[in-house]
Amino acid sequence: MKTQRLVVVGNGMAGMACVDEILKRRPDFRITVFSEETFYNYNRILLSGVLAGEKGLEDICINTEEWYRKNNITLHLGEKIIEVDAGMKRVTSDRGFAFDYDLLLLATGSNPFIPPIEGVRKKGVYVFRNMADTRQILERCKTSKKAVVIGGGLLGLEAARGLLNQGQQVTVAHLMDRLMEVQLDAVGGQFLKREIEKLGIEVLLSTNTEKIMGDEWVDGVLFKDGSIVPADMVVIACGIRPNVELARKAGLKVNRGIVVNDHMETSDPSIFAVGECVEHREKVYGLVAPLYDQGKILAATITGEKGPTYEGSTLATKLKVMGIELFSAGDFRAEEPDKEVVAYQDHAFGIYKKVVVHERRVVGTILIGDASDANRFLEMIRKKEIVDDKRHRVLFDTPPTVPGSPTDVMSRADSDTICGCIGVTKGQIVTAIRENGLKTVSEIKACTKASSGCGTCACLVQDILKAVVGVEFEEEKKTGLCVCVPFPKEQLRTMIRTQQIKKVQDVLDIYGNGTGCSLCKPALSFIVDEVWLGEHKEDRSARFINDRVHANIQKDGTFSVVPRMRGGVTNPKELRKIADVAEKYNVPMVKVTGSQRLDLLGVKKEDLPKIWADLGMTSGYAYAKAVRMVKSCVGTDFCRYGTQNSIKTGIELETLLEGLYTPAKVKMGVVGCPRNCAEATVKDIGLVGIEGGWQVVIGGAAGKIVKAADILCTVKTTEEALEAALLFFQYYRENGEYLERTYDFVPRVGLEKIRRETVLASQENKKALLDRLEKAKKKAVNPWAVESQKPVHPYQFQDFVLPKESEALIEVV
Amino acid sequence: MSKKIECHPREGGDQLQLDSRLRGNDKRWVPVAEMGSIPVKEGRRVVYGDWNVALFNLGGEYLAVDNVCPHKAGPLADGIVAGRAVFCPLHNWKISLETGCALSGGKGQVKKYPVRVLGNKVCIAFEKGGFCGTVESPALDAAEID
Questions:
Q1: pTM value > 0.90
Q2: What is the pLDDT of residues A291-316, one digit of tens each?
Q3: Which domain-ending residue is among A543, A558, A576?
Q4: Best residue in B48, B57, B103, B117 for a mutation probing chain A (most A CBs within 10 Å)
């Protein structure tokens, strides 16, 4: 058989998933793909995540340029096919080029439906369908304050949530009397409406849009009842229509969509169609799972292995709106009298569960507020399982030994579908783990594509992994910050930046559980500070008491004060001041610390500002996740063994970095020779003087664990040594997890990688790191100097000590 | 003990009428702080006679508990507030501001005090009686608190 030339029109999820299946069968096909969009193949479902700021545009790419190259696929980006000559077997593009084909695959998807409303062409009116739309909406959000979403279906609600995250005041106007009427019954609609309103989104039902108002730009929406809602932008999400224009030109049979049979063949033997543009048994699908089902069948047909047939898909929908769990599948309406409803409603908790039973089988379900049973019901529906024996507890199942425990998912059959989007079974995942020695969820995702669709099955995939590999299971390197805010630090940084979030509480409200804890609140403070570098009002209530009063709390509630003594060097004047202060405020203890500092212990909170004012020294930050100190030995100035000037270098290093916050405390040391008197080799960063140069060492520790530091580099001059220390310091600031000390950070990232990205990086990258460090340093203020003059809050240090009982007493009935 | 003193007007401008005698379950409300003197989601120590109380501002709503963590007597007023609970600054026990019960760390409870706002004053009804719960952790020594 000669090599087949396959032309694919459309570079979307359905088309490329099908191409993937075709390549599995026939890697020799010569495939050419035309894409009207100018991006590589991406996951369209996750655009709502991009709009919500939970994902970057780059995160949703499915196949990169490498995939096309590796599979010898010629990709024409930004080139639209406008003509099909089915007789000549030739397509023509909008650039005027003609391409001959042996086989043509139409994966043209669908177009957003724009209702005939006056004013839809105004600026500020968008559809929400592709990457370009998403970019435009995000851009508009920067200046817009009020958004109206026309359409309260799945996409409209996801758009509304995204716009809310982008700081918009959002109104959803829906034509029907309930939200998501395609996926919900009337009761479900009410539950969902309440949940949506709780998010702060206004919902208008049975609302018909009359006109979009404004001159050049939209400024409001007029409804048929005469009411007006002001708007800086309007997003239209009124459903989609199959894109069948080309199919018509090709003379194919078209109803609502391109008509295909059970083998996914159209009325032309050389032309095939897949995805949202297709009509199969009078049904058009707009969800992702059926497209994958179709792709598999089509791949068999098109490669000459015709046999398997497409029987239609069970429709299942999950709403991807953070804070709302919603799942609907199959026939949930139960309008016919022979269908039986099993339902549970908890209005206070917003939980609604409904299962429809027909002829002893579960045929449909709606879950709101708790969708943890979604996969269980979906399996029942797909398998047409008879549920007589469990009918009396069908809603709640037998409780598993431990809910969500690995054994829970492992008790399922191998043929059970885990990833509903891609159609990956439990058995396939287990086999993939065993055969390829997979250890992380990402590896499974790369290998089987499980969890690469909507991603909601990632937890199940992880449970399977845990059960199969047991103790060898590796947590994903990017774990969430905390149970309160289940996002990795990097992602939080992006969300905070793109959505201009400047308050810790806002991060908790939007992305977390709303309350936070003593771990994530300081961590979020650090991230928000790091992102805004002082362009925000600090939320002090999210900080640990030490950072609120700039002193270290002791076991009895008093504080300790450690003035900055750079390099551990002091002088008689400073010593005299410290002595005076200790006497004046009856400081119970003055102690020399392990960090070559003097510590005033047992200070009362209200005395703190007075003590700083009297001392006139800067804060030693001995209380914070910040640069603590640089210890030094006496070096060449005095020591007969010294090879380098460790005092001068230590003071210089401390001066360069003091006042900067870090993921965890950073202790440093500079020693003039390898005798290591100031213990630089067990510090986070150490400079060790050697004959003719310095060794720069990192990641040492002498605390709960003791660990010698690793050598980052060996250099000749002091300038080079300081630069290396600064490069690593900033690299750690940017990449360390909150509370992760350098001795954990260095092994996690790897010494080689750290070297490559710091001291061995290009001049340009080094400069960028140092520039960011300098910017942060410029914003760093010495809290003692500023606040001893003026507290951030009149009661920053104030407790309420009331006069004697009788004087303050009042009585109230 | 009973002494009638002037109180700030409630919103509406009415002068609050104060009875000169306590009846039944009446409480003695002691004004301790001006509204707004405690930043939102922070706490402050209130010392009144023998009482050492932590008063928290949860955003217009004020709650008060003993300022002595059931674990090792840490000053709860200096803790991080999360929702309707506070984390002790010493060893991170989580104490509910609604019930005074330890929610994590160990078992124990601190006493809770009634709080109300009269005029622009936050008032606490200081009541006698120490801890009302058991402590299952290293013995506490309330005298440690300064």
A1: no
A2: 888 999 999 999 988 888 998 888 88
A3: A543
A4: B48
